[in-house]
Design brief:
Layout (H helix, E strand, L loop, with lengths): L1 H23 L24 E8 L2 E8 L2 E6 L3 E2 L2 H13 L1 E7 L16 E7 L2 E11 L4 E5 L6 E5 L18 E3 L8 E5 L4 E6 L5 E3 L2 E2 L2 H11 L1 E2 L3 E2 L11 E6 L3 E8 L6 E5 L6 E5 H4 L6 H4 L2
Antiparallel strand pairs: 1-2, 1-6, 2-3, 3-4, 5-9, 6-7, 7-8, 8-9, 10-15, 11-12, 11-17, 12-13, 13-14, 16-20, 17-18, 18-19, 19-20
């Protein structure tokens, strides 16, 4: 009887050993980190960084720095939100490789290196190409998977936020500020609209009047809007030189700023806004545009 029990115990022990082997054995590519031979792809001086090229899903964005200001050069030439680009530059200069998670080229799609998702990043310093690498999916809140163009090794890079390089829309990069006119500097505002034309002027007492009537709080709200006038969109429409705008506002604040507005046939309606000398055509939602296009009656209230 004891002998039978011994054989049973030995058989159970053998089964457990086999099970343990299959559970712990390396049955494919490891997901743990491989030994690193480098901690960075490149060294970048953030002050000297002056060009970033980002290619994602067939679209190319080129960001350049000139005279201390970041702008978009491609696919359109326009101001960008400098803080967004500075965040990207900070990532590039502080990116640190934490581990290698894959050496298998067949695994690259699962880490975000498929043609639709990956982003090819090229960075320049003082006009010279500094480095190029490929950005994959996010690996954590502040990290992403990265790889070199000519190598199958996939790394986890900390201080590399994918969201700082790949944004849902092109417009997310662009500075939506149109004009910033200090209200205390304004001396007059002329409104030229289809139904009426009138002018609000600052009196010697410092208040604004339209004719002999003093303006009300709505005019003060209008001036507040001019201090930080922003667009709700950008238009790629091409307007001819003889385009007749439906509305015009001329603000005198030591210099004259003209806002030319054209109502579109879209549904819901929008307004195109142009400023002479500014090649960009802005697009305003109708309700936002109506905060500018106040009637004389509105501004006296």
């Amino acid at each position: 009887m004891k002998s039978s029990k011994t054989y049973i115990y030995l058989a159970v022990f053998a089964v457990l050993l086999i099970a343990a082997y299959f559970i712990t054995a390396d049955r494919g590519e490891k997901t743990s980190s491989y030994k690193l031979t480098e901690k960075k792809f490149f060294e970048l001086d953030s002050v000297k960084a002056d060009r970033i090229e980002i290619v994602n899903n067939g679209s190319k964005i080129v960001l350049t720095k000139s005279s201390g200001e970041w702008r978009m050069e491609e696919p359109k030439n326009y101001r960008v939100v400098s803080a967004l680009v500075e965040n990207a530059v900070s990532n590039l200069s502080n990116m640190k490789l934490e581990s290698i998670v894959s050496k298998n080229p067949e695994k690259k799609d699962s880490y975000g290196f498929d043609e639709t998702n990956k982003a090819d990043i090229t960075v320049y310093e003082s006009g010279n190409k500094k480095a190029e690498f490929i950005l994959g999916n996010s690996s954590s809140a502040a990290g992403s998977f990265v790889k070199k163009p000519d190598n199958d090794f996939i790394y986890i890079a900390e201080n590399m936020d994918r969201n700082n390089f790949v944004r849902p829309k092109l417009e997310d990069w662009l500075d939506k500020s149109i004009v910033s006119i200090p209200k205390q500097s304004v001396t007059s505002v002329e409104f030229i609209m289809p139904d009426e034309t009138f002018k609000a002027e600052k009196s010697p007492a410092g208040n604004f009047v339209i004719g002999s009537d003093s303006t009300g709080k709505n005019f003060d709200g209008f001036l507040n809007l001019l201090e930080r006038l922003q667009t709700t969109g950008f238009s790629d429409t091409t307007l001819s030189g003889d385009t007749k705008f439906t509305d015009k506002i001329i603000i005198d604040w030591g210099t004259k700023t003209e806002l030319d507005l054209l109502k579109t046939d879209k549904s819901p309606a929008t307004y195109l806004l142009m400023i002479p000398g500014d090649k960009q055509i802005y697009e305003l939602e109708e309700n936002y545009a109506k905060n500018l296009l106040k009637s004389k009656k509105d501004l006296l209230q």
